Amino acid sequence: MARPYPEMRKTMPTILIIDDDPDFLRLLGLWLESEDYRVLSSNNPQQGLELLDQESVDLLITDLRMPIMDGMAVLEAAQARDPDLPVILLTAHGTIPNAVEAMRAQAFGYLSKPFSNDELQTLCTAALAQRLAGRELSKLRADLRAQAGQSILHRSPVMASLVNEITRIATSQASVFLSGESGSGKERVARAIHEASARNDQPFVAVNCGAIPSELAESELFGHVKGAFTGATQDHIGLIRSADHGTLFLDEIGDLPLALQVKLLRVLQEGTLRPVGAKTEISVDLRVISATHQDIHALTTSGAFREDLYYRLHVIPLRVPSLSERPEDILLLAQYFLDRESQRLERNIPGFSPEAMDKLMQRPWPGNVRELENAITFAAAVTEKGWVSGEAIPDAGRQGGSSAFPPLQDAKTAFERVYLENLLRATDGNISRAARIAGRHRTDLYKLMRKHGLAPQLFKNQEDRDETP
């Protein structure tokens, strides 16, 4: 199923070229246009910079040595206007000091004239990928800041409608029944209702009815008195009384045994319960929110769920949409989980590469938000630093398996990228030397680099760069 994707993907990337050589400017512009880029150009640096104020530019390519204003001054002026704009410097004098100065000034990369089309295409592709990811990250961060402290993060209209409904019903004391697929966030919705209600300073107690062993369910829910059964060495108030004056969330209510459905019905009708072994009723005051991923109507029809209890619970029905119904929320939730994990792991992982965004948006997510959270936890664990790559996003059903090993294809891809990075560092970004060492043609190496979003200029003269004072 096609999914909405960030705005920038819908438009042709715009590249601004500044160079005082009119012939070179024209030839470079024609080639970039043939590669489906929108091109702006100027042989006057000051006029070129004015275009940044008038146009939405995704990448700036500028000559280093120009008589009116050199490339370093253009870089500085461009970054003052747009700090995230990637800048590629061109020079006919490819010296180490020039390279070191360019990289220290935060240029994305540099090319020495003459350069090949493959070199320029690789660097442009990597720079524009960074621009795309940076723009989407800025939007995501703005949305996360705007929704800070809210229980339900969303961009989608369907979730905005649900949030409005939560606000509307929160002041009521009526029971709420939540339906929706597993992992869709029903507990999160229940907590949001509690937090928006007058009971928000009282306990919120979540109970998974399907996770309590049947022989312990009555005692766990309703409590017991000392001596009620073997091992009952002290009174136990139970989960229902723990929610007194607050909200009780009964997840997977369809799994509650019939015998306990009768006792729960009495709690809802009379506001009282009797712990196991007790002789008197105890009053409780609470709001009940229940949920299930099962067809509650079918359970009622078959007799597996009491009809009278159904009507007591099903006063205000709310349906929680699946993640496939709210694709606009995928990247927002993914960024939230990534920020949380990168902070926990103490790693600098700012966001997702365009390839990772594509993978996140195209995946069907049958396990909903829970599956997405698990996938991002996995991706953060295998990303040491920098942007999360497409390869770091596990394929459906592969994360969190019983094996500690990643799938073979994932391992091959990860090794390939690390190998290329180490190879380029060892050869200072020299493609000819790297190709000889790898036993591959230069063209093959460029294809692999493009696949992994790597540019040779980022690895050139690393030692000189580190040692230069």
Radius of gyration, Cα only, in angstroms?
30 Å
Distance from first to last alpha carbon: 54 Å
What number is the mean pLDDT? Answer: 86
Question: Looking at this structure, what is the CATH superfamily of the largest domain?
Answer: P-loop containing nucleotide triphosphate hydrolases
Number of strands: 12
The best one-word shape is elongated
CATH class of the largest domain: Alpha Beta
- Number of helical segments with 4 or more residues: 19
**What ranges have pLDDT less than 50 throughout 5 or more consecutive residues?**
4-9, 400-405, 462-469
What is the beta-strand fraction?
5-15%
Instruction: Describe the main β-sheet briefly.
Output: 5 strands, parallel
Sheet/helix structural class: alpha/beta
Strand order of the largest sheet: 2-1-3-4-5
Number of domains: 3
InterPro entries: AAA+_ATPase, AAA_lid_NorR, CheY-like_superfamily, Homeodomain-like_sf, HTH_Fis, P-loop_NTPase, Sig_transdc_resp-reg_receiver, Sigma_54_int
Modified residues (4-aspartylphosphate): 63
Pfam families: AAA_lid_14 (PF25601), HTH_8 (PF02954), Response_reg (PF00072), Sigma54_activat (PF00158)
Organism: Acidithiobacillus thiooxidans ATCC 19377
